[in-house]
TrEMBL record:
Its cofactor is adenosylcob(III)alamin. The keyword Cytoplasm does not apply. NCBIfam families: acid_CoA_mut_C. One of its GO terms (molecular function) is cobalamin binding. Keywords: Cobalamin, Cobalt, Isomerase, Metal-binding. PROSITE patterns: B12_BINDING. InterPro entries: Acid_CoA_mut_C, Cobalamin-bd, Cobalamin-bd_sf. Residues 3-129 form the B12-binding domain. It comes from Alkalicella caledoniensis. This is Cobalamin B12-binding domain-containing protein. SUPFAM superfamilies: Cobalamin (vitamin B12)-binding domain (SSF52242). The keyword Metal-binding applies.
Length: 129
């Protein structure tokens, strides 16, 4: 497999992106190509960017508490487009919401304190890279 290409995206009105930038930098340091959308992106924009960029992974970050709605919308749009990629999420997400998000089709939710190495190992393991 060539370099893993990851889209790091901030859906919704959340304006805090330090964590997303740290993750993006960490993934790049582990040899992955990263495209960062910046803050306040719509689910439609995120899915369109993922398709245009041909990413292997979408990494969603949300700190606003709107993760259930926004992540589910993105999964619905991905399903409608039939674009297939790994989708992971993170941010301030209560543990009680994780089963719901996994049921929506996300592959993994990384909670605060997860190391970059854990993320890299999960992504590489899932993509057989």
């Amino acid at each position: 497999m060539t370099n893993i290409k990851v889209l790091v995206a901030k859906p919704g009105l959340d304006g805090h992106d330090r964590g997303a930038k740290v993750v993006a930098r960490g993934l790049m340091e582990h040899g992955m190509e990263v495209v960062y959308t910046g803050i306040r992106q719509t689910p439609e924009k995120i899915v369109n960017t993922a398709i245009q960029e041909g990413v292997d992974v979408i990494g969603l970050s949300c700190l606003s508490g709107a993760h259930n709605h926004l992540f589910s919308k993105i999964m619905m749009l991905l399903q409608e487009s039939q674009y297939q990629c790994l989708v992971v999420g993170g941010g301030i997400i209560p543990k009680k919401d994780i089963p719901y998000l996994l049921d929506q089709g996300l592959d993994k939710i990384f909670i605060p304190g997860t190391s970059i190495k854990e993320m890299v190992d999960f992504i590489k393991g899932k993509l057989n890279a």
